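Sequence only, no structure available. Ideas?
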Amino acid sequence: MTDNPDLSGILLLDKPAGITSNAALSRAKRILGIKKAGHTGTLDPMASGLLVLCFGEATKVSAFLLDADKTYQAELRLGVETDSEDAEGEVIAEHDVPALDEAGIEEVLDKFRGPIEQVPPMHSALKHKGKRLYELARKGETVERPPRAVTIHKLTLDAVALPKLRLTVHCSKGTYIRSLARDIGQVLGCGGHLSALRRTASQPFDIRDATALENLDQLDREQARALLRPADVALPHLPEIVLDEQQASRIQQGQKLAGLPVIEEGAVRIYAPQGFIGIGETDGAGRLRPRRVFNL
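Reply:
I predicted one. Tokens follow.
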């Protein structure tokens, strides 16, 4: 398996439940025959849905996708608490589920809409004194975790079939849906855990455009490579600036440019006559410096 700078792009994969994100990435790498690859936000093994994979030079946009808002379909099982806050954990408490109606549930959900503070789960990759929390959790240890600010942009109650609720959650980066399930269960007075999860969007991408892993397995190498999308499709929120050949050559050599059309200060997509070549930073006064240059 050899890398080729011409073999770059983004693959939208529909990961099945039951495998890790890294296992899904490894299978995609094997099918496409591209070694340099990464994903832009892990899904737990129990979760299914959209996994955005970057290959070749497109891995340079990964950092810009990690901050993306995400949308999930979540199933909560009320009345049962687990140590991992999801269905893969050990049951640590059980409670009777009260006769909840939609109005009462909506009243509780409203407490979680907008900016909130959330205590991350012990079973997470966050670090405490250099150790991953999940490593401590496996030893039966629990440590204090400071709450983190996240935003729940939209929280919709899709179905009530007690003891289960189905929700759609549109949230900011860093949101733990497991912890959201835990906290909703606590406020409802009966505890709960996340029993199923599916990611349906990771801005600017949608699950409807993804390829199921089982379908990818059926493709030959060329068919699979044809699914790759250009790296710049990940950056529609950035304004673009088009350079001539001489200017583009200077940017690709790491040089700064001046005297360009004035664009608001911040990150931009940079294009040469032949297409997308990188990401730069403008100062709002016609000056541009390269941030990530792509060998496409």
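The radius of gyration is 22 Å.
Hope that gets you unstuck.
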